[in-house]
Design brief:
It comes from Spiromyces aspiralis. This is GTPase-activating protein. The structure is a single chain. By secondary structure, the protein is mainly α. Helices cover about 70% and strands about 0% of the residues. It has helices at about 1-10, 15-25, 30-35, 40-55, 65-70, 75-90, 100-120, 120-130, 135-140, 150-165, 170-180, 180-185, 190-195, 205, 210-220, 225-240, 245-310. Helix 4 packs across helix 6 and helix 5 crosses helix 6. The longest helix is centred in the last third of the chain and has 68 residues, at about 245-310. The chain starts with a helix and ends with a helix.
Length: about 325
């Protein structure tokens, strides 16, 4: 890849104008990228141009500049290019930027299902406000949160993604929503969208130890490999069946409601049986008590009978 990178730097890309525009808007609050046409912006341009030539199907998509930006804070251009290629290929980030965006759509589906299961009150509030995950979470996932998170939190996200895989992004997304749930429940459509795309979403973690963000995300145990695999299979069944996501979610929610009703019925039966068991236990205790009293009475009668026989002799 090193030799390829040097070659790409000398070539022209059809995406150069678009890349230049995006580079000037990327991470401007960081010193390395704050200078117009400075060394940082030029390095970012070089890596993005090289990748657009390396993967002609993807070329350049908005959002990629935020993926590369944090890398260049920690490594050279050629190293950042290598890591970008690995993230796109080995970590399947590429599927977020291909024309079909198949991996992104699958991730958003998994996120919606986990969101509904883990935070049902907030999920239903979002649905009542006609807010879908594509309105806020797409950017989170495509940029590994770098478009929104303060850099001290971005570096933590990158560490976990590199160590555990891109699926860890789901845990971070659920963690942010859980932490802000109480506040989000009081907001309407416009305020929710504004809040989810503002730095206020991260105030809790930036005011404390940034590592707490990772610790909270690690506690989201619902995002297991097995669970994500089942949700991926479910997503593909949805696509094959021709049902749109909203309709399929309605079907699943109705099934959940039926199961909840059945569960309530079974719990009621269990409670009745427990009461019956309690009554029977009480009756058994009473019978044993009576039996012991009768046994004592019989013993006394036997003693009395022996005494009377002795006296008769």
């Amino acid at each position: 890849l090193d030799e390829e990178y040097q070659s790409y730097k000398e070539q022209k890309s059809p995406f150069e104008k678009l890349i230049r525009q995006d580079v000037k808007r990327t991470l401007r609050n960081i010193d390395l990228y704050s200078e117009e046409d400075g060394a940082g912006q030029q390095a970012l341009f070089n890596v993005l141009k090289a990748y657009s030539l390396h993967d002609t199907e993807v070329g350049y998509c908005q959002g990629l500049s935020y993926v590369v930006g944090p890398l260049l804070l920690n490594m050279s251009e050629v190293e950042a290019f290598r890591v970008l290629v690995k993230l796109m290929d080995n970590y399947k980030l590429r599927g977020y930027f291909t024309p079909s965006m198949e991996n992104l759509r699958q991730t958003l589906y998994q996120f919606e299902r986990l969101f509904g299961e883990q935070l049902p009150l907030l999920f239903n509030h979002f649905r009542s406000q006609n807010i879908t995950s594509t309105m806020y979470a797409s950017q989170w996932f495509m940029t590994l949160f770098a478009c929104r998170l303060p850099i001290e939190l971005v570096t933590r996200v990158y560490d976990v993604v590199i160590a555990e895989g891109i699926e860890s992004l789901l845990r971070f997304a659920l963690t942010l929503l859980r932490r802000s749930q109480t506040h989000l429940m009081t907001l309407g459509f416009d305020e929710i969208i504004k809040f989810l795309n503002s730095e206020s979403l991260f105030d809790y973690y930036t005011a404390r130890n940034p590592n707490e963000f990772v610790q909270d995300a690690a506690r989201v145990t619902s995002v297991s490999v097995q669970r994500l695999r089942r949700l991926a299979e479910e997503y593909h069944r949805v696509n094959q069946s021709g049902l749109d996501d909203e309709r399929y979610l309605d079907v699943l929610n109705e099934k959940n409601r039926v199961l909840e009703r059945e569960n309530s019925h079974l719990l009621a039966k269990l409670q009745d049986l427990s009461l019956e068991h309690s009554d029977l236990t009480s009756q058994l205790v009473q019978v044993r008590k009576e039996h012991e009293e009768l046994a004592g009475l019989v013993q006394e009668l036997r003693k009395q009978l022996l005494i009377e026989r002795e006296e008769a002799k």
